[in-house]
Design a protein that fits this description.
Blueprint lengths: L2 H13 L2 H11 L22 H13 L1
Length: about 60
């Protein structure tokens, strides 16, 4: 193998995203299965409290 080929392969290895390679390896080994219907982002979060409750708590904290 020539020096330029070795250098090219080294640069490709450094530039390749490692996480994608790890996931690909896990899928190839059958340890991870890709999502059947991938979403468009994170799932929606449920609200912790209503705005009215938050405002009441804020007023109470400010009064202390």
């Amino acid at each position: 193998m020539s020096r330029s080929e070795t250098l090219r392969r080294g640069i490709e290895t450094v530039q390749r995203p490692r996480a994608a390679g790890v996931f690909r390896e896990l899928v190839d080994e059958g340890l991870l299965t890709p999502a059947l219907a991938p979403g468009s982002g994170p799932p929606p979060s449920a609200p912790v409290a209503t705005l009215e409750v938050l405002m009441c708590e804020l007023d109470a904290d400010r009064a202390e």
